[in-house]
Amino acid sequence: MMMPDSAPRETAREKLLRAALHLFVTQGFHATPTAQISREAGVSTGLLFHHFGDKETLVNELYLSIKKEMAEAMRAGDDEGLPAGKRITAILRTFILWGISHPEERAFLDLFYHSPNICEEVKEQAYMDFVWIGEVYAGAVEQGIVADLPHPLASAIVLQVAGAIIDVAGAGCPGLTTEEVVDAGLGVLWHGIGGASTRPDPGPDAPNHRVLPP
């Protein structure tokens, strides 16, 4: 006797979002007609317009859904009981591992982060899911765990270094496992954002370096 499939069926809306993600990343927004998205999703174009109204609404809904998924993953990797430094490291590690395991989603965010196709209201709505990370960072600044950098600079350092870690780990690094690449990359990242309390004091002849916070 065959057991019923307990896995939830993908809805038409989910199929459309998945198809749009792949096509927007591989072809671009303007080169992807709604008819192709519907065909890729295996649903009618009428259903696309029923769920999203137009292609502009679709790309904004896709942006929101990816941002929300990423925020939920980072929340799941957070542990409020950890010291501030270890807590930030855990959040960053989760962000990096999410990027490695979601290459198309990451590529989409890279392509559309500054795109005029994403309206400011949607960007603001997506940002609200990440406010808590800024609060964690601010608390770490007060403790001297991370440097008191302007928000745009701190964000740029984190995103650039984390992006490089994701790229190298995703492509594979000879002689290193994914975890080893991530660990090494996080050590470099702390060189950029680490505060005074992350610097050990081994003596005047020691090399100038920082370590992951205790």
TrEMBL record:
InterPro entries: Homeodomain-like_sf, HTH-type_TetR-like_transc_reg, HTH_TetR. Gene3D superfamilies: Tetracycline Repressor, domain 2. PROSITE patterns: HTH_TETR_2 (PS50977). It comes from the Archaea. Keywords: DNA-binding. Residues 10-70 form the HTH tetR-type domain. GO terms for molecular function: DNA binding. Residues 33-52 bind DNA. This is HTH tetR-type domain-containing protein. It comes from Methanofollis fontis. The lineage of its organism: Archaea, Methanobacteriati, Methanobacteriota, Stenosarchaea group, Methanomicrobia.
